[in-house]
Structures are given as C-alpha cells and as structure tokens.
Amino acid sequence: MSYVLGYNQYGKAEVHVVRVFRDDPAAPHDLVDYNVSVALTGDFDEAHQTGDQAKVLTTDACKNTVNAFAKEAGDAVRHPESFALALANHFVDDVPQVESARINVEAFPWVRSHDNPHAFVKNGDYVRTVTVTRRGSAPATVVSGLKDLTVLKTTDSEFHGFYQEKYTTLQPTNDRVMATAIKAQWAHSSNDKDWGASFDAVFDAVTLAFANAYSYALQHTIWEMGQAALDADATIAEIRMSCPNKHHFVLDLSSFDLENNNEVFHADDRPYGLIEATIKRTADVDASAAYDPGQAWSEAVAKVPADA
Ligand SMILES: O=c1[nH]c(=O)c2[nH]c(=O)[nH]c2[nH]1
Were 76 and a residue from 86, 124, 296, 306 both cysteine, which residue would form a disulfide, CB within 3.0 to 4.6 Å? Predict the structure, then answer.
C-alpha cells in the first residue's frame, strides 16, 4: 500500500510575549501583550516520510523569532497586524523551504492606570485578534478582529412574528434584554493603513450600532453592526460575526406577591442561540482564504472515490 501525505503544517503555538516601549527615558512607558501562533507549510514531506529533518525550521526557532521580532521589528510591534505581517513575510521570504506562513495573534489590551507613566490595568473586556496569511509571492492577507466583547441592552429589543409549528413554545416579546459576547473578524482589502485607527473605528462603530440600533432579533442587530463596521473603514471587504444569544429570562416572582416588570432575570448560560453572519461590501467579495484557512489551504478539494 502506498499512502499519500496530505495537507500538513507546523509551527509554535501560543508564544506569549510582552513588549515594553521605554526608549525615551522622559516618556511614559507603553506596552503590548501578544499571544502569537505560527503555522508553516512548505517542503516538509521528508520530515514526515523519511524522518530527514534537514529542512525543518524548528518550532523552537519559530518561538525565538517571535521573541526577537518583539524587539527587532521596531514600530511594527506596536500593532498586532503589522507585527504579524513582519513575521509572516520573514518566514516566507527568508526561509527557502517555507511556502506559506499563517500568524495568529491574540492581543490583550492594557490601559494606563491613573495617568501613571509605568502602571497599567489589564482591560479584560475583550481580546483583539489578527490572522495574517502569506503564501508564496502573493501579498499577505490580513484579518483583524475581536472576541469576548460582552454587551447587553435592557430594552429596545423585540422578538416576535417567528415561525410557528408544534415544537414552538417561545412567547413573543416586545421588550426583552438582549446580550451577547461579540466575536467579529474582518478582512482588509488594503494592507497600507493605520491599524490602530482602523481597529478603534470598527470597535466604536460596532458597539455604537449595538447600543443605538433598535433590534427585532439578534440577526437584525448583527446586520446593523456589520454594516456599521463596513461604513467605518472603506478598505474592509467583509466582516464575519459570531454572536451567542446570552438569554435573560424574566423570573416569575408572583409566588412572592411581587410584580416583575422586566427587572429581575435569570441569566442562563446554556444552551444558547448562536447567530452567525457575514456582511460583505459587494456580492463578489470572497475573502474566505484570508480567515484561518487551516486544512482548507490544500489545493485539492477532498474527494473520496466511490470505491474507496
Ligand atoms: O434574536 C433571536 N433570534 C432567534 O433566532 C431566536 N430564537 C429564539 O428562541 N430566540 C431568538 N432570539
């Protein structure tokens, strides 16, 4: 039997590096906090099939590169997008046997504490995310994002008029709490931009749309938030959103002779509705390959012969 080695990739996952910017002794310190994962593809068949590791850039070297670039890459380190671009370009341009590099970054926000020049508070409200993919001589693709951004509104949310059949028991409502933990990823059509300003504009647009848009369903709110993100930055091609519906059920307090006018809720944790949608600038945008492509990078579409 001669089997075939299919898609393979390797690299170091979750290199957690913190960089302090303290070059100017008179200036307040700054910092970035990144959890970086590297995935490489290329001429690595022999490493698997004969055990010859001559072409294998060690995952230890991948880790060292991330740490060294936190100093060496200069101002590119200040934004997760430019840091990931510098790393992806290095692996593809400087290591001949590497055909593609995918860099995932989780960036944990810290904010200055009490205007102190060197004290910070970790902002656990959300995590900023980046996926940069670079393959051969094609330009790198950049997907920015955020996750775990939990938001809630106490009114201006309805849900009614839905399909009825024998398993439908949900009562319609004209006034409910709506809450979700936003995960969003957006693909850029240009890599020549101010990444920090772009992120801030999308963050503001998405949270403002959640707050201000009257909601007839979480689907409807995702549509509003996605459009607001595209409005906020003209070089975003599309945005993908994934939002769990964090149900808040009105508790029945009548046994205690208490009225509950949408004031006391059970915050349920599971199951939850999971609402996901992509909002694209135009119908012909297809940025699929820009997201974490994983095994989808394989050229061949998997086909299992009928007689297999
Ligand atoms: O915003 C919502 N969308 C749904 O599809 C749905 N389904 C459900 O039971 N509650 C909700 N809420």
Answer: 86
Residue at token pair 């290199």: 15
Q: Is 280 a catalytic residue?
A: no
Q: Mean pLDDT throughout 249-266?
A: 98
Task: Enter the DSSP assignment of 258.
Answer: -
Contact 142, 191 (CB under 8 A): yes
Phi and psi angles of residue 63, each rounded to the nearest 5 degrees, phi first = -60, -45
Q: Tell which residue, 42, 168, 48, 151, has the closest CA to residue 93.
A: 42
Digit-coded pLDDT (tens) for 91-144: 999 999 999 999 999 999 999 999 999 999 999 999 999 999 999 999 999 999
d(CA 128, CA 7): 29
Identify the structural domains of the chain with CATH numbers, from first to last. Answer: 1-134 (3.10.270.10), 140-289 (3.10.270.10)
- The answer to whether the Cα torsion of 222, 106, 122, 200 is positive or negative is negative
User: What is the spatial distance between Cα 97 and Cα 91, in angstroms, rounded to a whole number?
Assistant: 9
- 245: β partners: 180, 273
- Which residues surround ligand 1 with Cβ inside 6 Å? 159, 170, 217-219, 245, 273
Coil, strand or helix: which one is 91? helix
pTM higher than 0.90: yes
Tell me if ipTM is over 0.90.
yes
59 is in an annotated binding site: yes
Burial per residue of 265-283, b for 16 or more beta-carbon CB atoms within 10 angstroms, e otherwise: beeeeeeeeebeebbbbee
Question: Could you tell me if 273 and 303 are in contact, meaning their C-beta atoms sit under 8 angstroms apart?
Answer: no
Residues contacting residue 255 through CB under 8 Å, at least 6 positions apart: none
Q: Which of 162, 171, 173, 177 best tests ligand 1's pocket when mutated (most atoms within 8 Å of CB)?
A: 162
Q: Is 49 annotated as belonging to a binding site?
A: no
